Amino acid sequence: MVFLKKHSFKIAVLALCLAMGAYLLVTYAFKPKEELPILQAAPDFQMNDIEGNPVSLNSTNGKVRLVYFYYANCPDICPPTTYMLSQVQEKLKSQGTLGDKAELISITFDPERDTPDVIKDFAERTSAKIDDGWTFLRGEQDATIELAKKFGVGVIDNKDGTFTHFNYISLVDQNGKIRDWINGSDEDMTPDDIVDEINGLL
Fold first, then answer.
1. For 139-196, where are the E strands, in sequence order?
2. Strand 163-165 vs strand 155-157: parallel, antiparallel, or unpaired?
3. What is the pLDDT of residues 154-182, one digit of tens each?
4. 68: closest CA among 193, 157, 183, 190?
5. Burial of 181 (C-beta count, 10 Å sphere; 0-12/13-18/19+)
6. pLDDT band at residue 33, thresholds of 50, 70 and 90?
7. Whole-model pTM?
8. Which one, of 103, 141, 132, 117, lies nearest residue 50 by Cα?
9. 98 is in which domain, residue-wise?
């Protein structure tokens, strides 16, 4: 009894701290993450991979996909973004979801210059492992630029061998719905952040 009287203030403060800690734990630690909204249906397409095999959006349904439009001669944003995606590829592979549950798709809008050999060289330079859950596709240039725009990725052919384009990665769920546009130039966006978004859809 004497102990309680002597230390009542300390006990009250401790109890308040414990109650506050429990509140914060329940409120934030166990709060489920908000589900990503459905932004729009991803447009279907059919193109060939660098081995000439046909690939369509529908043929990859059932997997979460990252779709990235790029060109191999890009002087700035495409190489570092592709390298970041190569880190995503490694993380998905290490957790056992690459290929069966998640896939990366890169589509060039400069197919005349981006031959299979050029794409292979680009992939090697950016640490991308082709065919290991990552498909590189080629189509007809004008149609690909229109497809990119339907994905929400603006592209302008500068007619000098360069393209001005949004550096967005489209996150597509298992049912072909775009759930996020990830800014590949966002320095605060990490491969772990992207993997977390993918896992949130798995």
1. 155-157, 163-165, 168-172, 177-183
2. antiparallel
3. 999 999 999 999 999 999 999 999 999 99
4. 183
5. middle
6. low
7. 0.82
8. 117
9. 40-201
